[in-house]
Fold:
Amino acid sequence: RWLSQIEMSQGERFFYWRPGPAPVPRSTIEQYSTNVHAIPATPEIERQLRMIRRDDVVRISGLLVNAYRPADGYRWKTSLVRDDTGDGACEIVYVTGLQIEPRLPQGTYAQGRGANVN
Structure:
């Protein structure tokens, strides 16, 4: 229920959020939200990733990886901890499995079913 009171956006590679009238402590939001960059293991998983929509509850399995772009030597390092914030706090996941849960009624959130992806 409180999730709808948090303004979230994505820009470039960054995830931004701003709470409304303090629905939950800042530390709770930071602990249970993340910015995941997904590398699909197969074309089918890529298709599934492209089907994800706002407010979907998604279960992802895979491996945390670092990324390297040989063309210019750019290296992108994944976060390995859940309590970091800011630049570099995102996870890069090589996605080997993906499940989009059935939609919940608008404005609800089932704890323990996964994380909302926006």
Q: What stands out?
A: The chain has one domain: 35-117. Residues 112-118 have pLDDT under 50 and may be disordered. Residues 90 and 102 are 26 Å apart (CA to CA). The two ends are 15 Å apart (CA to CA).
